[in-house]
Specification:
This protein has one domain: Metallo-dependent phosphatases (Purple Acid Phosphatase, chain A, domain 2), CATH 3.60.21.10. The strands form four sheets. Strands 6-7-9-10-12-11 form a six-stranded mixed sheet. A five-stranded parallel sheet has the order 4-3-2-1-13. A three-stranded antiparallel sheet has the order 14-15-16, with no helix packed on it. It is an alpha/beta fold and 286 residues long. Helix 6 runs parallel beside helix 7. The protein contains seven helices and 16 strands.
């Protein structure tokens, strides 16, 4: 199962501290824990340290948020996004440590370029899955390209075409299935941008079976391409201060085999006004 943006700071962080770490996933944990592997995009560092960057939105989740993700059944989260360094390298380091303490893997960011680009391997039911994460958002008022990880610089894996192609090809040589996260596109725009499609198609052409997108904060279309599946944006999953349509969301359920994606489904979700998701009692198509 895969979900979109999980932001555990701001009022969600206050909720965790006041009500307990179960609060963000109190209505969805049973569903998420039913999957063999559950993944999502973590849109906030987990730390009590660091200094906020001078940007419009700087998020930071309390230390207990790592337990929230564990309670929610998450096995792995993507960190290649435009908020993971909101409180600098110290908070990133704390995030990596807090996730590891809960047995949760992460991709797309690290204390150097090698860590940021390294795939994570998860074996389940005899199937070896490789995960990668990349950031590729358009130019903004804040210079996110400065967050790209370097030889001795903490940061994120940027989705340069050659890096995506090489990363997927190398991971495919070690795994049955390659799954990549790409944080790209335009916020609150339902139409898939040409760059989103270009990177996603490149990943599939290079050997990936599944591409999971995030950043637009709203659901975008799911595409069958070649032998792969692309969910261009999974929208929000846990996120406060949003109204509709961003509060329409979903859980992507994918069945995988040695050959790739067997089939997929979407479980409709409503993100309540407090930012906490609930399984929708009716189809969003009705």
């Amino acid at each position: 199962m895969a979900v979109g943006d999980v932001m555990l700071g701001r009022t969600i962080g206050d909720m965790i501290e006041a009500q307990g770490h179960e609060a963000p996933f109190q209505f969805t944990a049973d569903t998420l824990r039913s999957a063999d592997v559950t993944v999502g995009n973590l849109e906030s560092p987990i730390s009590a340290r660091g200094t906020p960057e001078e940007k419009t939105y700087a998020f930071r989740a309390p230390l207990a948020a790592a337990k929230s993700l564990g309670y929610g059944g998450f096995n792995l989260v993507n960190l290649a996004n435009n908020h993971i360094l909101d409180y600098g390298p110290l908070a990133l380091a704390d995030t990596l440590d807090s996730l590891a303490a809960q047995g949760i893997d992460s991709v797309g960011a690290g204390m150097n370029a090698w860590e940021a680009h390294a795939p994570v391997m998860i074996e389940v039911n005899g199937l070896r899955l490789a995960f990668l994460g990349y950031l590729d958002i358009p130019p903004a008022t804040y210079d996110y390209r400065s967050w790209e990880a370097g030889l001795n610089q903490p940061g994120v894996a940027w989705a340069h075409e050659e890096h995506v192609q090489q990363g997927v090809t190398a991971a495919k040589a070690q795994a049955d299935i390659v799954i990549i996260f790409v944080h790209n596109g335009y916020e609150l725009v339902q139409q898939v941008a040409s760059q989103q499609q270009k990177i996603a198609h490149l990943a599939i052409d290079s050997g990936a079976s599944l591409v999971i997108g995030s950043h637009p904060h709203i659901l975008q279309r799911v595409e069958r391409y070649q032998d792969g599946l692309i969910a261009y944006s999974m929208g929000n999953f846990v996120f406060d201060n949003f109204l509709f349509p961003p509060n329409y969301s979903a859980i992507l359920v994918v069945e995988l085999s040695q050959e790739g994606v067997v089939n997929y489904d979407l479980i409709d979700v409503i993100v309540q006004l407090n930012g906490v998701p609930k399984i929708s009692p009716y189809s969003l198509e009705d």
